[in-house]
Amino acid sequence: MKIVVDFDLCESNAICMQIAPDIFEVRDDDFLYVLNEEPGEEDRVRVDECVQRCPKQAISVEG
Amino acid sequence: MTRRSVTIVGASLAGLRAAEALRRQDFDGPITLIGDELHAPYDRPPLSKQFLAGDWGEDRLALTRPDKLDDLDLDLRLGVRAASFDLVSRRLGIVNLDDGAGDRGGEELVVDGLLIATGARCRTLRGSEGLDGVFVLRSLDDSLAIRAAFGAGPVRVVVVGAGFIGAEVAATARTQGLEVTMIESLPQPLSRVLGDAMGAVCAELHREHGVDLRTGMGVEAVEGEGRVERVRLSDGSVIEADVVVVGIGVVPNTEWLEGSGLRIDNGVVCDATCLAAPGVTAAGDVARWPNQRFGEVMRVEHWDNAVAQGAHAARRLLVGDGEAEPFVPVPWFWSDQYDRKIQMAGRIGPDDEMHIATGSLAERRFAAIYGRAGRLVGVLGFNRPRQVMRYRMLIESGATFEDAIAAEF
Ligand SMILES: Cc1cc2nc3c(=O)[nH]c(=O)nc-3n(C[C@H](O)[C@H](O)[C@H](O)COP(=O)(O)OP(=O)(O)OC[C@H]3O[C@@H](n4cnc5c(N)ncnc54)[C@H](O)[C@@H]3O)c2cc1C
Ligand code: SF4
């Protein structure tokens, strides 16, 4: 699966980082960095949770 | 615990996320999702922000994509209202709003698992209901109506209530160049939640953007012939108005559960695991439960809570009492006003100790943390999303206020 973040929508509120800190990180510059753009299947549940919990609907998953 | 089927009442944020969670938990029985609005499930926060401003169209509000909705394999009944429920017989009375059958027509379903997610509706201002030009804001249709009223020319807007929804409507109206008066009965906006000092920061934000904010002020009457013309205030002053938006809080939608055998008291009363009765759970704005993390019975009217509690209440239906987990979130929400992102996590009370952890009130970019009995209990941020989330994690970990003050993010 591939993670795509729409950075025009993302407001760096770090909800995703709280759920999956190994995949998403909001850094000191207040921007979101995707640490692992193609996580394995074992991360699908957590990534799905990030997709749903993102209030800006900025995260989507391909594949 | 095996469940033959699950019926979810309320086809919005909590209800839809609950249905998705059931399927994620590999529940493959029938799921019926009942909602009294005609629209497919949509998101409410943009209704006072981007959608109201006209920047977003309806397509941006969808809470799910049609193909994903299909994948859930739901019996989705839109335009259908739950009218009654009986816990003993598990009969759910529903009314099809389309066919004009009225309250007496309709049909009865016998349900197995029931998840209540009927949310809340706006309080109205007594005496103003019949007047054109007076609005509340909860639904897509409400937002469309206000958007049309805002677009009708250089209208004078009066916002009653400076809570988060009222404040966002005022901000959106000002950004469109409309004349806005906002009336608040408290000494400062949100002072009951944030205390007077932070309330004053919010007040300044609006005044600087040209809102005529009147605090400590009640509304005596909303007057006009068929259509609103003026608002009369408790100090005797009168404000001419073309559009009035009333944002004075919400009440949970529980009327249909009167006499059901469930306990209703400012929401559907649940246990710590979101269970209201055997095989019945509740989630979102309608649910009231003891959050053991804070030792407090709460009903939370925030987006993130509806998502998390929807999923929790769904899982709760599928497990036995022994495996059930308490729902112990640190509540979190955001509000966008002008170029400020206001975020709050935890439980803030006006008597809590407050410490500005970063930034300053003067530049309106800060994170303030709140302590009670030596514990970190809350954080409020203006344009500090990352810090708010870090402190939220600290609250989750049970940090002391001292540790939180020492922490650097
Ligand atoms: C304008 C606006 C802006 C907001 N902005 C923010 C924000 O910035 N940040 C934030 O954290 N939160 C915000 N919120 C709050 C957030 O949207 C709510 O907390 C969330 O919608 C709650 O979801 P819910 O599913 O519990 O209830 P609701 O969204 O109220 O959904 C309940 C659904 O059930 C239906 N229903 C009710 N009774 C029945 C019945 N008897 N039978 C069938 N269906 C029924 C209702 O019509 C509705 O569709 C905002 C809310 C509004 C209105
Ligand atoms: S949850 Fe969404 S908005 Fe928040 S940081 Fe992650 S992608 Fe951005």
Structural class of chain A: alpha+beta
Which fold name corresponds to the CATH topology of chain A? Alpha-Beta Plaits
Distance between the termini of chain B: 44 Å
The tally of helices of chain B reads 9
The order of strands across the largest sheet of chain B is 3-2-1-7-20-19
CATH fold field value of the largest domain in chain B: FAD/NAD(P)-binding domain
State the major sheet of chain B.
6 strands, mixed
Q: What fraction of the residues of chain B are assigned to beta strands by DSSP?
A: 25-35%
Strand order of the main beta sheet of chain A, please?
1-4
The rounded Rg of chain B comes to 22 Å
What's the total number of strands of chain B?
Answer: 27
Please identify, by name, the CATH architecture of the largest domain in chain B. Answer: 3-Layer(bba) Sandwich
Indicate the CATH architecture of chain A: 2-Layer Sandwich
**CATH superfamily grouping of the largest domain in chain B:** FAD/NAD(P)-binding domain
Largest interface: A-B, 17 and 21 residues
Whole-number mean pLDDT of chain A: 93
| Morphology of chain A | globular
General description of the model:
The complex is a heterodimer of chains A (63) and B (409). Chain A has 63 residues and is of the alpha+beta class. Chain A has a single domain (2-62), classed as Alpha-Beta Plaits (2-Layer Sandwich), CATH 3.30.70. In chain A, 24% of the residues lie in helices and 22% in strands. Chain A has two helices and four strands, in the order E-H-E-E-H-E. Chain A has helices at 15-19, 44-53, and strands spanning 2-5, 24-26, 32-34, 59-62. In chain A, the strands form two sheets. Chain A has a two-stranded antiparallel sheet. A two-stranded antiparallel ribbon of chain A has the order 2-3. Chain A is globular, with a radius of gyration of 10 Å. The N and C termini of chain A lie close together (5 Å). The model of chain A has no long low-confidence stretch (mean pLDDT 93). Chain B is of the alpha/beta class and 409 residues long. Chain B has three domains: 6-121 and 250-323, 3-Layer(bba) Sandwich (FAD/NAD(P)-binding domain), CATH 3.50.50; 124-246, FAD/NAD(P)-binding domain (3-Layer(bba) Sandwich); 339-406, Enolase-like, domain 1. Chain B is 24% helix and 30% strand. Chain B has a six-stranded mixed beta sheet, covered by helices on one side. In chain B, strands 9-16-10-11-12 form a five-stranded parallel beta sheet, with helices on one face. A five-stranded antiparallel beta sheet of chain B has the order 23-24-27-26-25. In chain B, helix 1 (13-24) packs across helix 7. The longest helix of chain B has 18 residues, at 191-208. Chain B is globular. The two termini of chain B are 44 Å apart. The model of chain B has no long low-confidence stretch (mean pLDDT 95). The chains are: A alpha+beta (63), B alpha/beta (409). Flavin-adenine dinucleotide is lined by residues 9-15, 34-37, 44-45, 47-48, 81-82, 117-120, 137-138, 165, 253, 256, 284-286, 301-304, 306, 333-335 of chain B.
